Design the sequence.
């Protein structure tokens, strides 16, 4: 069993990863400053440090807890916020990652799992489905910070013999996703429906995305403890779903019959993004198991019991 630090372990995806690691018997330590994460997401059997990833005291935690593996989920995740405040985005996502890598180097961390964004790093003009051999580029500060983080991870790995895995997620959805902002459309729609209000669909509902269930993503993080050494891997389904289809499935699951409100195209929304996941199947021995309807049922059941504000 490994001693693992999960940054962002109070957040949506990170907390689901922590639950899976704890369930399998790993010793888990969480670092999270609760910027968007929530105390109630924190697994009782993990040790929690309320700390910023930019804090130099991370080194003390790595030493004290004898951490062997770092799984780095903490981030500023909003694209519009990164456009409004690129310096803050870079401070958290670039300098925070760099601080972790420096600390990791000091204590000789065996493996660094870095979470990147398959929906962003291939750029708006990528040939779809995007695969890992395509050049990584970026169209906004959030994307630039993820691309830069990937480069730093590779640099530290080459220089200091630290092993790494980069996981490039598509659109992740599931229990605990916060229904705010521009991301998390599944949770936004479900939470509107729970209030008996029709959601707004932008751009005629034609935007295509690749929706992957958070439980499948957590399983990929388990496999990344062992497989896919020094590789960047797409984690998605490879399945194209437009927003109209997504809404139809959500309406079926929730037995909701109101027509959505049709809104304008949103600036910056790329028309389509989905990922080629052949590499994940081959080197990570992973593929998604939960289809969209089943994942939406599980997410709906979560929100029925947990109203997020
Ligand atoms: N949600 C998606 O569809 C998606 C897709 C691609 C990549 N990702 C990546 O997955 C990771 C997790 O995203 P999420 O959707 O769970 O978001 P989230 O906001 O729920 O999780 C981020 C966590 O990081 C913490 N955090 C933020 N700044 C911090 C700091 N300076 N120091 C310590 N902790 C800090 C937050 O409090 C939160 O708990 C992020 O790296 C994100 O970029 C998410």
Sequence:
């Amino acid at each position: 069993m490994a001693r693992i630090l999960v940054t962002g372990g109070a957040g949506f995806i990170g907390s689901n990863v922590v639950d899976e690691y704890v369930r399998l018997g790993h010793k888990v330590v969480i670092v999270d400053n609760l910027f968007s994460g929530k105390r109630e997401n924190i697994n009782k059997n993990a040790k929690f440090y309320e700390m910023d990833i930019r804090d130099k005291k991370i080194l003390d935690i790595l030493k004290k807890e004898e951490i062997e593996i770092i799984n780095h989920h903490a981030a500023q995740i909003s694209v519009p916020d990164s456009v409004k405040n690129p310096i803050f985005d870079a401070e958290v996502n670039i300098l925070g990652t760099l601080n972790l890598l420096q600390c990791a180097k000091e204590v000789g961390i065996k493996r660094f799992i870095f979470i990147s964004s398959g929906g962003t790093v291939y750029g708006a003009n990528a040939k779809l489905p995007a695969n890992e051999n395509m050049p990584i580029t970026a169209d906004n500060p959030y994307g630039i910070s993820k691309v830069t983080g990937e480069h730093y991870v590779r640099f530290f790995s080459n220089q200091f013999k630290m092993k790494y895995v980069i996981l490039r997620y598509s659109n992740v959805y599931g229990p605990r996703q916060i229904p705010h902002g521009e991301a998390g459309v599944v949770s936004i729609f479900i939470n509107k429906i729970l209030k008996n209000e029709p959601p707004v669909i932008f751009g005629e509902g034609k935007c295509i995305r690749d929706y992957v269930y958070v439980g499948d993503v957590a399983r990929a993080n388990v496999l990344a403890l062992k497989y896919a050494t020094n590789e960047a891997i797409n984690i998605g389904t490879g399945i194209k779903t437009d927003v109209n289809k997504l809404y139809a499935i959500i309406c079926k699951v929730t037995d909701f019959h109101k027509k959505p409100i049709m809104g304008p195209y949103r600036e910056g929304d790329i028309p389509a993004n989905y990922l080629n996941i052949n590499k994940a199947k081959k080197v990570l021995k992973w593929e998604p198991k939960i289809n969209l309807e089943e994942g939406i049922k599980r997410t709906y059941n979560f929100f029925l019991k947990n109203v997020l504000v």
Notes: The first helix runs from residue 12 to 23. The longest strand covers residues 111-117. DSSP finds ten helices and 13 strands in the chain.
